[in-house]
Amino acid sequence: MRKTILTVAAAFMVAVTGLSAKEISAATDGPAITKNIKEVNISSFCKAIVKGDYNTVKSLVDLGEDVNQKSLGMTPAMFAARYNKVEILELLIESGADLQIKSDNGFSVKKYAELSNAVDALAVLETALGS
């Protein structure tokens, strides 16, 4: 409980003061708090999918964005399925998304839809996969 309170307090301080992770670790004498902070880099393409920004996704596809390029170990179709972005999922399928690729965790695009209870995306996938 004490560790949780300290972690929340440290996070709040960072948010309020705008300190960077490097500044925090330089300011502490003990083990750096930032060792538990993991940098997450998701592609702009997948960010647009998660947000449901169809127009941006369409523009990027039209400009030649790779519809099978993984970000955080998942394909764009997996992000669309996980977040139930049906129109985007259909666009990705029409643009050549490979629905047989497994994520770095070993899950299929269909499994992400099932795990997220994304019923509409699951229906699209079942039609596309013929199952």
Q: What does this entry look like structurally?
A:
By secondary structure, the protein is an all-alpha fold. It has a domain of 86 residues: Serine Threonine Protein Phosphatase 5, Tetratricopeptide repeat, CATH 1.25.40. The chain is built from eight helices and no strands. It is globular and about 50 Å long. The N and C termini lie far apart (48 Å).
Please summarize what this structure is:
With 131 residues, the protein is mainly α. It is 56% helix and 0% strand.
Name the features:
131 residues, mainly alpha, 56% helix, 0% strand
**What spatial form do the alpha-carbon principal axes imply?**
globular
Radius of gyration, in Å, reads 19 Å
Can you summarize the main beta sheet?
none
Helix content: 55-70%
CATH architecture of the domain at 44-129: Alpha Horseshoe
Can you give the mean pLDDT? 83
CATH superfamily name of the domain at 44-129? Ankyrin repeat-containing domain
